[in-house]
Amino acid sequence: MDLAKLDHLLTVxxxxxxxxxxxSVPLVWAEAPPERRVEMLSGPHPGWAAVTPDTIWGRPQSYxxxxxxxxxxxxxxxxxLCLGIEAQFGRVMGRSDPxxxxxxxxxxVQGADFNHREVLLTPSAEPGxxxxxxxxxxxxxxxxxxxFGCALVEHDLEAEALWFDLATPLDVARHLPxxxxxxxxxxxxxxxxLNALDLxxxxxxxxxxxxxxxxxxxxxxxxxxxxxxxxxxxxxxHTHIDVAWLWRVRETRQKMxxxxxxxxxxxxxxxxxxxxxxxxxxLDALAQDYPDLFDRLKARHAAGQVEIEGALxxxxxxxMTGGESLVRHITRGIRYHRETFGVRPRIVWLPDTFGYSxxxxxxxxxxxxxxxxTHKMSWNDTNRMPHEIFWWExxxxxxxxxxxxxxxPMESNSIxxxxxxxxxxxxxxxxWRRYGQKGGHDALFLVYGHGDGGGGPTRGMLExxxxxxxxxxxxxxxxxxxxxxxxxxxxxxxxAAPEAFPSWVGELYLEFHRGTxxxxxxxxxxNRRAEATMRELEALATLAWVSGADYPAxxxxxxxxxxxxxxxHDILPGSSIAxxxxxSRTEFAAFFAAADRLRDSLLAAPGAGPTVANPLGQPRAxxxxxxxxxxxxxxxxxxxxxxxxxxxxREAAPIAPVPPLGLRPVTIAPGPAAEGRLDASPTHLxxxxxxxxxxxxxxxxxxxxxxxxxxxxxxxxxxxxxxRDLPAQFDAWDIDRDDREQLWEIxxxxxxxxxxxxxxxxxxxxxxxxxxxxxTQVVSLEADGNILEFDTFIDWREQNTxxxxxxxxxxxxxxxxxxxxxxxxxRPTHANTSWDRARFECxxxxxxxxxxxxxGLAFLNDCKYGYDAEGSTLRLTLLRAPTWPxxxxxxxxHRFRYGxxxxxxxxxxxxxxxxxNAPLEARExxxxxSLARLDTASIAVEAAKRAEDGKAVILRLWxxxxxxxxxxxxxxxxxxxxxxxxxxxxxxxxxxIEEGAIALAFAPFEIKTIRLELA
Length: 1015
Known about the structure:
Elements (H helix, E strand, L loop, with lengths): L2 H12 L3 E8 L1 E5 L5 H6 L6 E2 L5 E2 L4 E10 L9 E6 L3 E3 L2 E3 L1 E6 L2 E6 L5 E5 L7 E10 L5 E2 L2 E7 L1 H18 L6 H15 L8 H15 L13 E7 L10 H21 L5 E3 L2 H10 L1 H13 L2 E3 L14 H19 L5 E3 L10 H7 L4 E4 L14 E5 L5 E6 L20 H10 L8 E6 L10 H12 L6 E4 L2 H14 L6 E3 L15 H26 L6 H13 L12 H26 L6 E5 L5 E7 L5 E3 L2 E2 L1 E4 L5 E10 L3 E4 L2 E3 L8 E3 L2 E3 L3 E5 L5 E6 L4 E2 L7 E6 L18 E3 L3 E9 L3 E10 L2 E10 L5 E9 L4 E8 L6 E6 L2 E6 L5 H5 L3 E2 L3 E6 L2 E7 L4 E5 L2 E8 L11 E12 L5 H8 L5 E3 L4 E2 L1 E3 L4 E8 L5 E8 L5 E7 L3 E7 L5 E5 L6 E5 L4 E8 L1
Parallel strand pairs: 15-16, 15-22, 15-23, 16-17, 18-19, 19-21, 20-24
Antiparallel strand pairs: 1-14, 2-3, 2-5, 4-13, 5-12, 6-11, 6-14, 7-8, 9-10, 9-12, 20-21, 25-31, 25-53, 26-30, 27-28, 27-32, 29-30, 31-54, 33-34, 34-35, 35-36, 36-37, 38-39, 38-44, 40-41, 41-42, 42-43, 43-52, 44-51, 45-46, 45-48, 47-50, 48-49, 49-52, 50-51, 55-58, 56-57, 57-62, 58-61, 59-60, ...
Helix pairs in contact: 1-3, 1-4, 3-4, 3-5, 3-12, 4-5, 6-7, 6-8, 7-8, 14-15, 14-16, 15-16
């Protein structure tokens, strides 16, 4: 019998697994959001409409409820009965629409979706037993459902078992070479088994007897001898759930309940089933929304069937998320695991994020995390990563074991892998085929299960695994185990023989999804502002706490909730639907309002007057801008009216330095306008450091570094350029290299005027028109500054257009330097290799720079994350307006700033960029104080906070130039004991306090967590 015939006979057998009984469940229905769950469950439901075959329901992002009762007829006594869910299920990228949560007799029993259509009603039906059915159904897609139903179906476990006894080995056979004798043996035994099967209708006992005979024959497959040198694949059940994407966060909370209910239902039937879940945020949501379900999950965890691993609070973006935010994703995740489940995670599981910062290895090591796991690097569009199991070395030199998943079906012709397979023997065999280090390591890890609302693993996957565990010739050995167990053994092997595994140094740059550094500019601006706000609030709260005030831990935690949630890897990258960003906008509005209230309460000091806070680790001087319609004096200095690109104005004057991590009162009073004039005209700005001239199109014609006399531009700079932006695949995610071939200069200048002449700042306003859009920039230069600032307001109306600002520099630069978390990254500006060519759009944080020895040009920004550097030309990526999944993204108003700063040494850039992102502001109350100071600007203070245990001050410091440094830290309060701590704030090593100061030594880009216990 050939394979096609065997497949056909199995199809006939499969139809006998779930048999129709002719008994349906009459249903009524209503629409209501999850917030009305208690009301909808309480019943009765007199106002609900009857469900008919013509019932039309289902809308995007909506919820529906179906209720009914069914009585078991006498004819079905003792039968294993399931509810067969009948809906017009859609299946897109592994997720399902609709998705359902099924209650029977008031108890949540399972999720139902495209992949899980049968729900166990009873293993042995009692005639006359009445069952109540309630189904919550969510719809995401923009399509209508017609009809919905439940019917009783009889489940034949033995017929099902035979089907898997044969289907699993046949899947192995179809992927073996035709001249492989193991293939012949499997086909021969399968044919013999199917010839023993009696498929005639009408005599259930005869059919059952033939099934038993066929199963006995099929079992011989597992006794066939195979080579002893077989790889071993550890498999663990999982469901990846995006916290938001093509659905809102509130829908994800329902997805979590449905998926966990399905996992729990399978555990009741399969005691050998092992299931892993990782996101603390969604586990916490489950506890809030479905406490009974959560308690059942905890019980299964205690019994060893559920594995809680993965360390992170949720799966964040790793390109744009700030350094301290990454710390909080780790520390909050570990703390949640410990407090809720009593486990100490050791793995960073981040399978779906779009590239990985070189800061991560150090963060892992300092948090006691042992291994990093992903699969996403297989999505590279140009180069295949050379290793799958290796040492990843971060930019500080820390090395951590790292594993890339290799799962793909045997049919695949690409390098792409998956972490959501519909597990078959093909995926197990494909995982081994895809693995590139076969000679040195023969044990791999594989997670399986439908993601994003596809419900996770299925009965079929578990049945396939059972057959592969027994051994099938030609298939790798399969062990149904835990992720933690596999990686514990792998890490031990790597540490025992580190030289046996290769290394990768630096960032894991994903050659794909480059547009995510720019899409949905609003959420990126809110993220940058919110991170800076949290830094300031925690410093102020700590300053107040050491003076005896209460520390607002709960309020700060609630604000971090919003920040961390919006850093999820489909929210911050701009790759979600419009509703997600409407929710994000609302959340950030609440965030900034609550932050203002908290800041006011922390600064409250009756009669203290205006105060300027400095959350940075170095003293801050500069222009202080205040809201006023008339001139004022600030500390006795008359103010100057300054203008912003959005049309607003402020009064500003320079102030003396504000102490680091501290406060300084200022005096603001009515006064005369400042007098004096800077060297400026409608076409130039000049001070002792810089001379900038502008051409007739408003472009930066020249930029002269006056101390050296060097011209820094090779041609007009700040050239605003529009590019075609129509990526071949994922609109919001991707930028295609060839779209650079179609470029339009935005050079239709409609107005230019000198609007500020000094004495504190000079500025020119430029206005351009492009199609239906308008761009306004106020280009300014402070009297004593060395930064040429471009304050920008854009009313953007053009879709599928990428906007950049180009600067052809007169510098010999073969690499760019771009800030990342806790350091910076060097990237080639040439295309010598395919790896260089693929880096045509890259991420940055607050700065990027090009330079020669002794002179360079730094580009600072306050909320942008994308750039490209080609030769000596650097372009900042300002915005784009993709149309999918949000048709309307980035259409509207944008406000942002960027600046140009000549530099001699890298050491000049980080503190300037830090200050650029923290403009001086005056608020009422606060007095004068300083939490701590450092004797060098080379060491940054990333965070100042109270310790989680409430017993110490925590300072997070890091070296930001990439060289070895020494520093002295002087606390501004009495310290009883000082120590260096791990990322979780546990003391590692004591530190000596001599003459009130602590001596510290830093390696390049080293992070130190300093714990200071109050005297």
